Predict the structure of TlpA family protein disulfide reductase.
Amino acid sequence: MTKFLKTSNLLNGLFFLAVLVLLFNPSAKAVMIRGLMKVGLFQPDMDMSVEKSAAVPDVIFQSTDGRKIHLSDLKGKVVFINFWATWCPPCIAEMPSINSLYQKLKNNKNIVFIIVDADRNFSKSVSFMQKNRFTMPLYQLASNVPPELVSNAIPATTILDKTGRIVFHQNGSADYSNPKILEYLNRIAK
């Protein structure tokens, strides 16, 4: 019996249990990814030499209060768009950093945040945002979305400049609390 209670066996058992939790618990995965973000991994690729794309076709989003906004009506503003889902650990992991960025920029009238529910279960996303005390504006799609904004992978984040052209696109999670993002958004919003 004491053979099984050796320290190495207990540590192996705890390690195996931790791996199982990470495999089957989205919240645990999100916590792990968020921790990796804090040590410098998952930084957004801020390659400012990216060639601007053509203007993105119009997309319609609907807010939690039923108000509809057209992407085409936001020309003249920088638009930060993030597609996410409540079941997606990388999405959950990056949400605090997006909320932090939003808090720093919410009073800048030249920058608009559109956080898009990809769940197709808006009430679940609203509940998630409230539970986590995220104050970013939440939207759902009210039209088709062009592949330039989101492909088959989420999270997906796109930044449009004032002319409506894509100047940044990130598939996968990233730490948006990076000061370079804040500086970049403030610069292109002038």
Q: What stands out?
A: The CA atoms of residues 124 and 157 lie 21 Å apart. The chain has one domain: 1-190. The longest helix spans residues 7-24.
